[in-house]
Amino acid sequence: VRVSAKAEYSKYSIEPASPMDFGTMVKGTKKSQTVLLENKGKFNFKFHICQAPKLASALESKSSEEGKSASSATKCSVRRKSSSSTQAYLKIGTFTVFPCSGSICPLGQQKITVECLAGQEGRCEEQLYIDITGR
User: Residue ranges of the domains in the chain?
Assistant: First the structure.
């Protein structure tokens, strides 16, 4: 009896790479940008978008100042696509991200939408991360 197996991790891509910048906005206006999360593997995977812990935000801001790239999920947004199941939205400060969780089939894609509603004067910055099961 011959037995064999092949183990694989979830394979994915996130475009565009971060950081995501909404630029200067007039108070009371809204802009949105999209991130594409793509399943390049052979199995379904689940994703969940969360706010990064404050410590991680401070460290990434420091590394950005030193010329390093920030988290690949900074201020992102997603929209539902037929190849995945999705859940609700995440509101952090002036940013709203949707969907904030879901499941993506092999070779499927999920558009994640990040909206910014310019409320008060000043700079608004948040750090988010995308947790993918089996990575």
Answer: 8-17+27-52+83-134
106 upstream amide cis, omega within 30 of 0: no
Query: Which residues have a Cβ under 8 Å from the Cβ of 63 and sit 6 or more positions away?
Result: 69, 70
d(CA 77, CA 58): 22
User: Which residue carries 């894609």 as its tokens?
Assistant: 109
CATH class of domain segment(s) 8-17+27-52+83-134:
mainly beta
Question: 104: which strand partners?
Answer: 45, 84
Helix, strand, coil content of the chain in percent (nearest 5):
10, 40, 50
**Structure tokens belonging to residue 130:** 């995308």
Per-residue confidence of the chain (135 residues) as pLDDT tens digits?
999 988 888 899 999 877 899 999 999 999 999 999 999 999 999 999 999 887 644 555 544 443 333 333 333 333 333 334 455 899 998 999 999 999 999 999 999 999 999 988 888 899 988 999 877
pTM score, whole prediction:
0.70
